[in-house]
Hints:
It is a single chain. The chain has helices at residues 9-16, 29-38. The protein is globular. It contains 2 helices and no strands.
Amino acid sequence: xxxxxxxxxxxxxxxxxxxxxxxxxxxxxxxxxxxxxxxxxxxxxxxxxxxxxxxxxxxxxxxxxxxx
Length: 68
């Protein structure tokens, strides 16, 4: 079930509130690291409500700054 919106908070809340043990979430740095810093009233706890299963992908990040 695709639950888009609110930078992933809607889907994360749906999965965190799921009562079965067969619901998966493909999360990202936004849903588990950035959103908790931006909002103190999330409907889920990114540490306690989820258990990691596997790393799906890695994305390199490059920051380029002009010295002037």
